Amino acid sequence: MTSENPPANRWSDLERPPLNGAALRRALVRDGGLVRDVEVVAATGSTNSDLAALAAAGRAEEGAVLVAEEQTSGRGRLDRTWSAPPRSGLFFSVLLEPSKVPVHRLGWLPLLAGVAAASAVSRTAGIDTALKWPNDLLVTVDGEERKAGGILAERAGENFVVLGIGINVSLGAEELPVPTAGSLALAGARGLDRDPLLRAVLRGIEQWYVPWRDALGDPAASGLQEAYAAGCATLGRRVRAELPGERTLVGEAVALDGDGRLVIAVDGGGREAVGAGDVVHLRAATA
């Protein structure tokens, strides 16, 4: 992991200014708040891996935030890679310690981050953002749903969870990792300043995490289940769920259960709750 000292060419791309770690700390760290520290590094392999290592070494506590201007070995779900040009997006991780929350409710953490990120993007960038279960942020580009962000929650030791978030902010079409991806710029964002967006996402995580943690992970009591369902583009859609063991389910996504699993009304009858796998939204024409 590199230091927070900026590289000599930090202003080589004036449309992608660097984040200011000191300014972020002044804005976000407060007595009684969730965020305890914010560190910005020029580049690293994975902010999730780095923050997990710091927690294991006793050098980070709940509320530590690590932000990378460039992430060279970013990971998504199912071991997919996540890469983007320097300072073109937000790539950061937050260390949480939900030690009193039952393990079966920890699956709500990426969904919680999705609610926080989607509302922050909608409010700050001025574009509609939807959630694809369980961890994708969707924006509309040229009339099509595109993934502009992703979330990865990983256990770190006995008590910690590292919550990683990546959002494509200013990427142009030629910079996308795959042609079907999207960015806030391509979706017509009214502003591409990453600083207020990062602040809004982190404040949103605190807004949802604290009552969810205090409710011992109860998604109904904390209001999280209702909020996620309201913003989830997967519910009410025909989907194909590709599950571990090469199983596939096709049907309508009808609900979220109390553990954050997607409930599918399977073609041919019956319902099944899906907790892991890859979910594809099916167009009406392919139903």
UniProtKB/TrEMBL annotation:
Keyword annotations: Biotin, Ligase
Highest taxon above the source species: Bacteria
Family matches, as InterPro entries: aa-tRNA-synth_II/BPL/LPL, Biotin_CoA_COase_ligase, BPL_C, BPL_LPL_catalytic
Enzyme Commission no: 6.3.4.15
Alphabetized PROSITE patterns for the sequence: BPL_LPL_CATALYTIC
BPL/LPL catalytic domain residues: 27-213
Matching Pfam families: BPL_C, BPL_LplA_LipB
Recorded GO MF terms: biotin--[biotin carboxyl-carrier protein] ligase activity
Gene3D superfamilies per UniProt: 2.30.30.100, Bira Bifunctional Protein, Domain 2
NCBIfam families associated with the record: birA_ligase
Name of this protein: biotin--[biotin carboxyl-carrier protein] ligase
